[in-house]
Amino acid sequence: MRYYPVFLDLQNRPCLVVGGGAVGLRKVKTLLECGAVVTVVSPQADGQLLALSRKGSLSLRQRPYRTGDLKGMFLVIGATNSKKLNLRINREAQEAGLLCNIADLPEACHFILPSIVKRGDLTIAISTAGKSPAFAKKLRQDLEKKFGPEIEVFLDLMGAIRTKLLEQHEPEAHKPIFERLVAGELLSLVGKNKKKEIDGLLSDILGEGFEFEALIKRGSEGNLNKP
User: Fold this and answer.
1) Residue 25 confidence (pLDDT)
2) Mean pLDDT, rounded, of the chain
3) How does 172-194 read in b/e, with b if 16+ C-beta sit within 10 Å?
4) Is 1-113 a domain of CATH 3.40.50.720?
5) To 5 degrees, how large is the angle CA 46–CA 139–CA 16?
6) 73: Cβ–Cβ under 8 A, 6 or more apart, which residues?
7) What number is the average pLDDT over the span 168-189?
8) To 5 degrees, how large is the angle CA 26–CA 30–CA 34?
9) What is the pTM of this model?
10) 3 state SS of 169
11) CB-hemisphere CA count at 13 Å for 71?
């Protein structure tokens, strides 16, 4: 296996994107969703990048890339239309010991960006090691149909249950309980919004004190407190 699967925590980490076109914009949007502090360097910039800059969501330097732009960065993405410049960015990133991704040039990347399915706190990453992005896209589309918006509510519910159980029991005692919840019809009931049936199922497995509405409220409050 060539690539080591990992999810990077980019919260408040400085990241550089070189290139202000459509590809650069896609990379920027994903970085911002992950909480990165984004700087874009490009003589020309997509209108959406300009708007994000005006809002203060990113720092935009409308000029060519310069040696030294990598200083202080955690990660860099090269997304220009110049292979020569992209390879230069890769070389300078290697010299600086930085993680580097070059769009559409896997051999010049320290990591590749997978196709992603995102449903609330559920993230599924799909990679073909760069051999078939089209197949990775097809798998993503299939999984997006399989996992609908109900998964977000389900995960909030499961998170609230886990938090409450941790207040009462040791973690090892939870394993068979969660296996029953996941293997049963709880997700299906959540998708159909059958609150009465959900409460009945939770009562059967967990006992008293586990009601859907109260747990969902608790889970939502926990999400608001996330960094």
Assistant:
1) 97
2) 91
3) eebeeeeeebeeeebbebbeeee
4) yes
5) 30
6) 14, 15, 16, 39, 96, 98
7) 85
8) 165
9) 0.78
10) coil
11) 4
Task: Give the gyration radius of the chain's Cα atoms.
Answer: 22
Pick the CATH number of 114-146 from 1.10.1060, 3.30.160, 1.20.1540, 3.40.1000: 3.30.160
Kindly give the pairing relationship between strand 99-102 and strand 115-119. unpaired
Strand residues in 28-131 grouped as ranges (E): 37-41, 59-61, 75-78, 99-102, 115-119, 122-126
CA distances from 100 to 17, 131, 133, 201 (A): 10, 19, 19, 48
What are the start-end ranges of the E strands in 120-164?
122-126
Q: Which two tokens stand for residue 139?
A: 């798998």
| Cα–Cα nearest to 65, from 36, 100, 37, 33 | 100
Rounded (5°) CA angle 57-61-18: 90
Q: Using CB atoms within 10 Å of the CB of residue 117, give its burial: 0 to 12 exposed, 13 to 18 middle, 19+ buried.
A: buried
Tokens of 166: 């941790």
Residue 90 one-letter amino acid: N
Q: Residues 67-93: pLDDT tens digits?
A: 999 999 999 999 999 999 999 999 999
All structural domains of the chain with their residue ranges:
1-113, 114-146, 150-224
Sign of CA dihedral 98, 101, 106, 108: negative
Establish how many alpha carbons lie within 13 A of residue 141's alpha carbon, considering only the half-sphere containing its beta carbon.
Answer: 6
Helix/strand/coil for 95? helix
| Strand partners of residue 76 | 16, 100
